[in-house]
Amino acid sequence: TNQLAIAIDGPAAAGKSTVAKHVAQRLSYIYIDTGAMYRALTYKAIINKVDLENENQVSNLLENTSIDLEQTNKGQLVYLDNNEITREIRTKEVTNNVSIVAKHPLIRREMVKRQQLLAEKRAVVMDGRDIGTHVIPDAEVKIFLIASVEERAQRRHKENLEKGFESDLDQLKREIETRDKLDSEREAAPLVKAKDAVEIDTTSLSIEDVVERILQVVATK
Ligand code: C5P
After folding, report:
1. Is the ipTM of this complex over 0.90?
2. Region of residue 91 (phi > 0: left; psi between -120 and 50: alpha; otherwise: beta)
3. Closest residue by CA, ligand 1 atom 5
4. What is the pLDDT confidence band of residue 128, given thresholds at 50, 70 and 90?
5. Top mutation candidate among 9, 95, 129 for ligand 1, by most atoms within 8 Å of CB
6. What is the pLDDT of residues 162-180, one digit of tens each?
7. Please, what's the b/e burial string for 38-75 (b: 16 or more CB within 10 A of its CB; e: otherwise)?
8. Cα of 1 to ligand 1 centre, how many Å?
9. Cα-to-centroid distance, 170 and ligand 1 (Å)
10. Residue 18, Cβ density class (10 Å: 0-12 exposed, 13-18 middle, ≥19 buried)
11. pTM to 2 decimals?
12. Which residues, in sequence order, are CB contacts of 54 under 8 Å at separation 6+?
């Protein structure tokens, strides 16, 4: 079969990464989590006490930063300047600040450049907010995943409890809404459904259902 690029976009906690990983596995494609790249930079900026609102400072930081994603059978590992930071980028502090870093045009320009290099050879499933619109505008398959805020917060809540993390459902809901608002209303490459994307509402679907639907779309290409 052809080697395709599959772009999966959508709001926070809509299940993009879980679904993308499964689709990549089924097709033996590589999976690229672009959110992890913005998270890694945010983590580094926080540690270095860089003012996240200062576009030039964050941009200078990014110029001297390497971010690598490694696929292993234990899942994706994220490296920042060759140090593994897979867990560190999932903290509340990073999650609640990443949209500030991601709104800067200079940051997005550099991230998109790096992501395009990773997607060059096709046979990729890439997830994010602007993959179908900016990173791979000519992707053969574009999926836009949505789910109600209630459902997304519930899923995250369940996940947190299973991992033994503290979790407050109402707070999660507010945080997801805030992040969606920032990501959708920013000027540079806001979260928006590409004209040629297939929208899938996952609210009442299982992971396996969503994966099957995406594979059905892939099969038509
Ligand atoms: O997908 P994830 O929730 O890990 O993304 C974290 C944040 O990174 C998003 O809320 C968004 O601000 C930013 N992001 C982005 N463009 C992408 C991927 C992520 O702006 N392609």
Report:
1. yes
2. beta
3. 35
4. very high
5. 129
6. 988 889 999 999 999 999 9
7. bbbbbbbbbeeebebeeeeebbebbeeeebebeeeeee
8. 31
9. 21
10. middle
11. 0.96
12. none
Asked if the 7-219 domain carries CATH number 3.40.50.300, the reply is: yes
Provide the token pair at 210. 């969503």
Measured in angstroms, how far is the CA atom of residue 26 from the centroid of ligand 1? 24
Res 17: pLDDT = 93
Rounded to the nearest integer, the mean pLDDT of the chain is: 95
Output the six-digit token pair for 83.
């140090």
Mutate to test the pocket of ligand 1, among 106, 183, 184, 185 (most ligand atoms within 8 A of CB): 183
190 annotated ligand-binding residue: no
**Terminal-to-terminal C-alpha distance of the chain:** 9
d(CA 127, CA 106) in angstroms, rounded, equals 20
Q: Where are the domains of the chain?
A: 7-219
